Structures
1.
Amino acid sequence: MASPRVRFVMIGGFLGAGKTTTIARLAKRFLQEGKRVAIVTNDQAHDLVDTGALAAEGFNVGEVPGACFCCKFNDLVETAEKLTEATAPEVIIAEPVGSCTDLIATVIEPLRRFYGDSYQVSPLATLVKPEHGLKILRGEKGVGFSPKAAYIFLKQIEEADLIVVNKVDKLDEEQRRELIDLLEKRFPGKPTLLFSARTGEGFDALVDALAQPAADRAAMMEVDYDVYAEGEAELGWLNCIIGAARSEGTFSLDEATVELVSILGRRLTQISAEPAHLKALGQGGDAYAMANLVSSDGTAELSHASGVSVEQADLIVNARVATDPEDLERVVREATEEFSAKLGIECSIDRMQRFRPGRPVPTHRVGA
């Protein structure tokens, strides 16, 4: 008797769209329903905040580092198989890199065609990030990203089986209507949901939509890989770990994590560098805090509070910013010095990785 197929759910969307929070909420729902769940995260580098945060929540997490799922398809399958062997999940939730597109042709369809006996693939849900979405869909100039980076944002929405407008708890009624109108005009006939990963608004509708099998595609989306590659390469990518310690007394892990992201955001604004997403994960013992900043006109937010004070902690920083990686490293180092002086905390930077993403070279690309 053949083993039942594992349900494979992929949640896409641009950097800062709220994929990790959405995936955590989905995983908790599946667990409440009595289903075994595993998660696969993805990044261009190692030391991913999302992996640490999801693992700290107690989820079974595997990571595919070094490139997008499309370029690391075999690694994705191998990671999924290892998770299946270890814990026999009934659902695997995958979070692709936020600057990646063409997922249907390079991940979903190859998985269905080559591993259809093992996986039942759900529709591709793409989260829309309102902070930049409204500006890009309006065609505004000076949104902080070049047209080539905006091209990736729009292509992600174009290929979605389901458009999910996230963070609607931050939008008033007029902004909600405008965003829906802009999406319907740009992508007519595509199913669209309003959703808040933070409050749970619209969550049941998302769960119901993801319960359906992915629809067959008559043709794959056309993608200009030259524009795609140039758009990705305009983003500076940085991951590092900052060791923080106070020789006498303790410090609030929550306040420190938010303050670090706030300082980084201010310093990036000073050099006119638009953040696609800044994340920091503060880990102190078994507790963790996480803070985010997703646009230059936003503020740093504590997305997970630890409620603890510690003598020392590791602060994992992931920065995706429209600037040169060298400038990004300089900002991070200067921000760390300011953070250290302001909070009276001794800091050291370890495992610094900074670069521009290379050209996507998919392992497979299904044409139809």
2.
Amino acid sequence: MNVESWNAHRRMVATHAGEIACVDAGEGPAALLVHGLVVNGHLWRPLAAELGGERRVVVPDLPGHGASRSRPEQDLSLPALAGLLVALCDELGLESVDVVGNDTGGAVCQVLAARHPERVRTLTLTNCDTEDNLPPPFFRAATERALRGAYAPQLRAMAADPARARAGRGLGCCLERPEELDAGILDALLSPIAAREDAARDVERLLVALCNEDLAAATPGLAALRVPTLLVWGTADPFFETSWARRLQRLIPDARLVELDGGRLYVPLERAAELAALLREHWAVSCSSATAEGVTKANHGFPMGTRLVP
């Protein structure tokens, strides 16, 4: 799916929690794909292409990202963002969804699953924030700059310069092979920030609103979660090391962890084919409790470069 086709499927949805842009495409059981800070729904475009014809993919742009604006008074905390996604599902007539989150979107999905488990058919988390690692140490300087209002200008400068965006202090640190990132996807991810100063300020506001206490409050709900859960973790991520994935695996009952050797933060972007294969297996197993026990203890059918962690 190219940029034009992706944008053609995007629409604005008014909810009681605010207006949000989302791509709604395909048919079948719905999968809700949630991105993280700085980027937008285009992060999921390669995965959506892999799942074409198999799933209805619902891909929101979080407030202040992509085509979604945020109001100055809007609550951008993790619970509020989780509530906004539930409101979006209400407006789309979705009672339960297969939830997939990455980066900050993974933190939002943890809160959503803890507070509204009845709305989550399955949960999949790729490299993302976890309790006591929000924000990760690598990103705390950015949070401090955001508190002073100094992060937005740096973010806009990076978004306007493709070479800078691919560098180690841009999106490059989130990618295994930044030099191979398609220029069209890079532009789709960053052009909204480069085009509007208020977009960078919105990202800054959301960053400041992130609070480890909000994620910690989700711990009891996650510990009681009875939703099939898959963790897909790139092993070379400087933000979210695999130790955090193992912590989630211990917390969430029967969670299954698959490590992608060499993967970094943007697993959905660079390892879309592998992630799609793992999701298909996860969703299929979740539909058949009779076979779930045997499949979760094996590595049958997993793509090359993956490792199931018992």
